[in-house]
Design brief:
The complex is a heterodimer of chains A (about 260) and B (about 170).
Chain A lengths: L11 H21 L14 E3 L5 E3 L4 H4 L6 E9 L1 H7 L4 E12 L3 E15 L5 E17 L8 E24 L6 E25 L4 E16 L8 E2 L3 E2 L3 E12 L1
Chain B lengths: L1 H16 L13 E8 L9 E4 L5 E7 L3 E7 L4 E4 L7 E9 L5 E15 L8 E11 L4 E6 L3 E2 L5 E7 L4
Parallel strand pairs in B: 1-11
Antiparallel strand pairs in B: 1-2, 1-5, 3-4, 3-6, 6-7, 7-8, 8-10, 9-11
The chains are: A mainly beta (about 260), B mainly beta (about 170).
Chain lengths: ~260, ~170
Amino acid sequence: MPTKICRFISAPRIRIRLILILLGLPFLASAQDTVPAAANDSTPVVVVISKDGKEKKAPKSKKKDKKEPSFFYGVAVGADILGPILKVGGSDWRQYEVMARVNLLDKYFPIFEMGIGEADHEGHDLDNHFKVRAPYFRIGADYNFTKKHNGNRLLLGIRYGFSTFNYDLDAATPLADPVWKTEQEVNFTSQHCQAHWAEVVFGVETRLWTVVHAGWDLRVKFRISEKDPALGQPWFVPGFGKNDTSCWGGSFKILIDI
Amino acid sequence: MKVKSIICCVCVLLLLGCENINCPLNNTVESVYGFYASARSAGSPFQPGGAIKISDTLTITALGADAVVANRLVNRSRVALPVSYYGEIDSLRFAFTSADGSKAADTIWMTKENFGHIDDPSCPLHMWHNVLYVRSTHHLIDTVLINHTEINYDANENLQIYFRTQD
């Protein structure tokens, strides 16, 4: 008499096929859907046939079925579009910036930002003319406070920024000595500076399209150290902004998941 | 959420549009000379004495510029003088006239390097200096010491003039 493996099936060949199909279901499910295993309900059912003909279910692994988000969600690259807007708007300083960001657990976002900062500024009542164009670099990380993984993010982060650059200062009017009655052209070129600073970043971001994100951030920046030439502090530090011990900044960025 | 985002963006742009200019209020660049008595006795090495006030009338002329930079000063223990913007050596003639009409004069040559300094493009450019070397004649002056090499807005006492008092 054939051994029963199911209430309605009693053939030995069918018995073996059924066991194989049941064992393979989870693998088929995971191959068809990239969502983590727990997202579907294809729980494997393994039937073990005992010698006495009674059917027993194999114990299930509960933890294995629980949803575990992947650690590495991907990399995104992007650009700050505020710089070109400031240039069109006639601002005397602007920054062109690109960035690369890693998404870990959709919570932690290590980020590298680099760009070119430029300024072409003239004094208000005097004709002193300050000019700089130099690269800058920032490294840091953001933390996402939102709990849903729907592409909308509320970010708080920190950055370390660095720039080494040369600036020029000239003036149309020569500088005259009132006592010795001599004068010289004002033309100071390649005045070397180095600046290090820290930033606290608050930003929001949303998904515009499947892989395209847009967001803005507001940053408060603190000078860590600065090496200035004898001529004095630069009016503008690439990546930092108008020079002071601290200043505000921001960006409006478009990011693409790659 | 959308309205809040727009408000924050506007705030950012407004912040970027703000500007403040920090020009220093004290922006006079002068070399400061302090007057001291030399405690040197005849044949002995230099000994610095205390600060003194010059009771004689003192007139200081910038040689080369032919400009009087300090006129008929009396009872002064220090004096602040202009520095040439571009010259390598400033020559200053210190002429003393006593109450009885007797006159004496010394010349001080100050060798220096000059460099521009500016705090903001909206502030005026000034020349700052670094004193390298000083020498003088010795009619009334015993020794001139460099106290602070940097001549800038700080108005530190740059040179100390020690006058003969023991002769």
